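Standup notes
- DV: blocked on the single-chain target, sequence here:
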Amino acid sequence: MVLLHGLKRPIILASASPRRSQILSMMGVGFGVAGSGVADEDVYIDLNDLDTSLRRLAEAKAESASLKRPEALVLGADTIVVIDGNGVLGKPAGKSDAARMLRALSGRSHTVVTAVALRCAEVGFCVSTAVHTVVFFRELGNEEIEHYLSFPEYEDKAGSYAVQGGGMTFIDRIEGCYYNVMGLPVTATLGLLKEFIRKESLHGGE
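- DV (later): unblocked, structure below
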């Protein structure tokens, strides 16, 4: 990729999310995949400082893979849905929980927040950012919610819907990065990678 022509290190995505893998592939980035190494994500979330706590979670997800591959650049990420400014909707515990979430989102806006972190243990590099996208849902009927939840698409999705799948029919409009709603904001991710290129270039010139 032309924008990342100065990047000489391997890239690892510390996430099992097929959506994040898809986005990186679409960006033209070559990468490997590793586990996030974080078991209990909820303990990181602080409603009083959501962006900072979510960035710390993304950094923690990148950490274990970075320690195993210190020469590599490791991307960690996490996505949540925020409603009413302070209510957080993560991944559903089951079908009834997913139905509760979709009813809560019906006919109103919510904010999708994705934090992305980039680590390289070999040089002690770690930067992160959080990106917000506002999504507006139309009014949803109970029957269409039940129909949507009869398929497994909602599973393992923050807010219980997939913007790139059947969940697109729920959306009236989006303000901000579409790919952020999928799980990986493109411009922000490129920014982190380019920041590493700049810093390593400066270090190499010393």
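- Follow-up: The first strand starts at residue 11 and ends at 13.
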